[in-house]
Each structure stands twice: as structure tokens, then as C-alpha cells.
Amino acid sequence: MNKMSLNDRARQFLPFDAQKGLKEAIRLKEIEYERIKRRDIDEDKCAKISDTLLNVEKNELVEVTYFEEGYYNTITGKIKIKIEEESILVDKKIIKLFDLYDIKILKDK
What we know:
The chain is α+β, with helices and mostly antiparallel strands. The protein is 29% helix and 31% strand. A hairpin with a 4-residue loop joins strand 2 (71-82) and strand 3 (87-90).
């Protein structure tokens, strides 16, 4: 009876991926299913966002929720307003007004 080397013995217990790339493809599909559709904004919420944008001042601290590539994200930072380009700039993130879901003016601490 031949004795198996330690390396050969250990190799038989390594993870087995019968189809290369299958785990990655499954992971990508899971991420795709986690994505959600853009929610409609009712008139009241739209008016609130518009009012906030009219009253916010440059470099004021804000919390913004926006839609991007199937996900809602929230960031906090100082706003640089670029309404004429139909977007706002919060720190270094450009957010299109169309993607804006909520904005709150925060008090500096």
C-alpha cells in the first residue's frame, strides 16, 4: 500500500468549485435581486424638498437621501448648490435633483 504525502492528503480537503465562476455569478445575482425600484415621490414630499432647497445656504450641513443604481443612499455633508445644472453637490458627491429622495438641514454641532 502506497503512503500518501501530506500535501496530497491535504489537497483532497481543499474547497471544490466544480464550475469555475459559479460562486461569483451567484453572488452577482444576489446583489441584483437586492436592488430596488425607484419610489415615487408624492406632492407633499416634493414640495418639502423644493422648500428645503430654496432655504438651504451654501456650505450648510445637510443629510441627503438619494437613489443611485438600484439603492437608496444617505450622506451627510456640506452642500454646494448647482440648481441651474439640475444637481446639487454635497461634499464631493454630485446628486441629480431627479435622484433626490430627501434632504434635511442639520444644525452644526
